[in-house]
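quick one if you have a minute, typing this from the bus. theres a chain ive been looking at and ive put its sequence and its fold in C-alpha cell form underneath. please have a look and point out which stretches look like helix strand or loop to you. anything you notice is useful, everything is just below.

***
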Amino acid sequence: MPRLEKRHLQQLRGSSYVLTLPKEWVEELGLGKGSSVLLLSDPGMFYVVPDGRGGGFSVEVELSEIGEDKVDEAVKLFYTLGAGSMRIKSEMG
C-alpha cells in the first residue's frame, strides 16, 4: 500500500533544492549514502526512483495510451526505471 509523508523543500545556494527522504523508506529499498536515484517529472507528479537497471518489474501498456510515435521513448524510460520486461498491447492483439 502506498505511504504518504509530507516533507518541505529547502533551497541550497540559490539554484538547487534539497528534499530529505524518510530513513526507513531509504533503508527498505536497500539504499544509503551515495546511492543513485532517478528523478522523473510528469505533469502534477514528481517521482524519485532507485537507479536499478534490468531484471526488475514488468510493465504492460496500451499502445493507444502512449501513441506509436512515443514507443521508443517509453521503452527507454521504463528501462531507465529498472523494468526487466515491457509488453505493449494494441487493439490488433
User: Anything to note?
Assistant: The mean pLDDT is 82. The chain has one domain: 10-89.
